[in-house]
Design brief:
single chain; about 140 residues; alpha+beta; Heat Shock Protein 90; five-stranded antiparallel β-sheet; 3 helices; 5 strands; about 30% helix
């Protein structure tokens, strides 16, 4: 089994989101990833990166690393987000009650909920002073 690893380090700033999404999209296109799967991955990646940019280092700033690994047999994409910000495990957050109207739901939590729904696996660990969130999508 062959895996290709690609890595991007960027300031964790919302203005860098287009760079992050283009980096991920480039590697999805190379493997002929279907448009629906690309969209699901893009939505999840946007949610995660914007959360890192908005909360991980606040009120100061720092960097984020995005790693894309494409593996074969079965074809899968693993996207790992790493930052040295405050420890935070988004997978521990309770899912919002999506049966309620938007006005009745509490603020927050919808992004990680969508990420968990779109991805086949979402894992978090805090290791070596870093938040490491891994998203896996079988293509």
């Amino acid at each position: 089994m062959r895996s290709e690893i690609h890595e991007l380090e960027t300031p964790a700033e919302t203005g860098k989101l287009p760079v992050v999404l283009a980096f991920i999209e480039q590697h999805l296109e190379e493997i002929g990833c279907p448009p629906k799967v690309q969209l699901q991955i893009a939505v999840a990646a946007e949610e995660i990166f914007v959360n890192i940019a908005s909360y991980a280092y606040a009120p100061v700033s720092g960097n984020a690393t995005v790693r894309v690994v494409v593996s074969e047999d079965p074809v899968a994409v693993t996207i790992t987000f790493m930052d040295g910000g405050k420890p935070f495990d988004p997978t521990k957050r309770d899912d919002p009650d999506v049966t309620l109207a938007a006005e009745e739901r509490g603020i927050g939590g919808l992004g990680i909920y969508m990420t968990k729904r779109f991805m086949d696996d979402v894992k978090y660990e805090y290791k070596g002073g870093k938040n490491i969130l891994t998203l896996v999508k079988r293509v």
